[in-house]
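Minutes, project check-in
Item: structure for the 145-residue chain
Input as provided by the requester:
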Amino acid sequence: MYKTYSAKPQEIQAERKWYVVDAEDQVLGRLASKIAYILRGKHKPMYTPHMDTGDYVVVINADKIRVTGNRMEDKMYHHASGYPGGLSSVRLKDRIEQFPNRPLEDAIRGMLPKNVLGREMFKKLKVYAGPNHPHEAQKPEKLEL
C-alpha cells in the first residue's frame, strides 16, 4: 500500500531554484500561466497543495511582451476608488508605457491562489522591464518556455 507524500518545510527550502525567463515576443497569457505553474511548484514531484513548493522566477524584458489581436487597444484595466463616480480605466497600451512590468504581474497574480499562500508565492516573482536584473548572485538558470 502506498502512502501519500507531503512535503516538509526543511525539504522545500533545500529544493528551491532560481530561473530567469526572457519575456521578449512572448504572448502575455501563455507566459503568465507557465510562470504561475513554476511559482506554485506543480512542475516538481514533491508538489503539495497546501505548501509553497515553488521556485523563484526572474522575468526580464517585460516591456517587450506581446498580446494577440487588438488587445493592446481594447483591453482595459479598471480601478474603483470606492467613491461614487470613482471608476477609472486605463488601456493596456497606456499601462505598459507607464508601468511596463504591471500587466505581466497582474496576469500572474490572477493565476495564483487568492489567500496567504498565493501572496507568499507571488513574492518569489521578480519582474524587470529591461534585460538587466540584480539577481546574478543566485545563479539563475535560463528557462525556455
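Outcome recorded: The chain has a mean pLDDT of 95.
No further action items on this chain.
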